[in-house]
């Protein structure tokens, strides 16, 4: 037995727990090193044993069988580090373990206290996020379509006449206007690059924001500070000026964050740029459209593209003007509009693409689809790690859901809505309807 009665394999159990959450993470030596640096053995025991889903303190105590007087300070310490999230629902708090992304990585690199070796952790996170056997291949190498991030287009460069086609959840200012509370915090990706000596841009560290329940958590846990809608509007203006990609929570309702990302630092954009996983960030559905008569072939748009999918193609015709013109790889284009922001002639603008991607309506639906794709939905359905019946059902149902025909059917257009509605009805019958509105 380990320290204070905690088993010597508790970090192996914790690694399995983190890998079983909505975002998979390979159980490598690097992951174990990160976990050992961030969690005490007692904290690791709490997270390994607690339910996979959001639960009250009383349920966490009942499931983990850790005495309440010992459990409460342990949960408090985990929440202060962002390793467990506590969100207020009605008059009570629910606790849920943080996944690697969005969770452990972001919260750790948003911290400003001296409780963690940020430089060492930055290097370890880099290995997890950029390795060939790391987080992106683990989550997108089998054609997965669901991501936690989606790109929101810069409205200023939408082609005239197309404004009415921008949906409310695709308007950054609408996301801000609807928020009841906003927090701004340190960008985890830029902070990681800063500590590794790899940050080459002049974009400030503190720029990305969270909304509502997520904002309340960050403010209460000193991981962010509250700002006004006016201050956030200024940040959106800065994002346009600096040519940053706006990546939001991939849901239609109650978006919890809006990141302002640079192509040189953002790890999510690297999932597309480095590994070629188009759905590491869900594209906006808009594409650059070039007015050949106005284009002068300066190449500013290609240099500005944050994911390097827009290139200048030579035109070898004798009297061609310009001598080169931009071409975009539509399969990998984010539809962010950063290229058009840098076009001095106005010849490049965003126009509706042939395919409009509709994100899940709520976080509840997104998590269901995300875990179904990644083979961990059974953990959300039977979320007590220590209960034998739940363990059996996780194995049985998990094996069934991983069958390719079953997974394809549930994710298909024909059954997807019915599957989600069935799951929502089941949650409401259990008296947890609040989950479906998140």
Please describe the structure with a list of short key phrases separated by commas or semicolons.
Arc Repressor Mutant, subunit A; two-stranded antiparallel sheet; six-stranded antiparallel beta sheet; disordered N terminus; alpha+beta
Strand-helix topology:
Elements: H1 10-19, H2 29-38, H3 41-49, H4 57-64, H5 68-80, E1 84-89, E2 92-97, H6 100-110, H7 118-130, H8 135-140, E3 149-152, H9 172-178, E4 182-186, H10 188-195, E5 206-211, H11 212-220, E6 225-227, H12 229-242, E7 245-249, E8 257-261, H13 267-273, E9 286-290, H14 300-304, E10 310-314, E11 324-328, H15 338-341, E12 348-352, H16 363-374, H17 377-381, H18 388-401, H19 404-411, H20 416-429, H21 434-437
Antiparallel strand pairs: 1-2, 3-7, 4-5, 4-6, 5-8, 7-8, 9-12, 10-11
Helix pairs in contact: 1-2, 1-3, 2-7, 6-10, 7-10, 9-12
Spatial extent as radius of gyration:
23 Å
Strand order of the largest sheet: 3-7-8-5-4-6
Regions with little confidence, pLDDT below 50 for 5+ residues = 1-5
Mean pLDDT: 91
CA(first)-CA(last) distance: 40 Å
Strand content: 5-15%
Biggest β-sheet description? 6 strands, antiparallel
Instruction: Give the helix tally.
Output: 21
Helix content: 40-55%
Top CATH class of the domain at 3-98: Mainly Alpha
For this structure, the CATH topology of the domain at 3-98 is: Arc Repressor Mutant, subunit A
Which architecture of the domain at 3-98 would the CATH scheme give at its second level?
A: Orthogonal Bundle
Structural class call reads: alpha+beta
- By CATH, the superfamily of the domain at 3-98 comes out as Winged helix-like DNA-binding domain superfamily/Winged helix DNA-binding domain
Global geometry: globular
Query: Based on DSSP secondary structure assignment, what is the total number of beta strands?
Result: 12
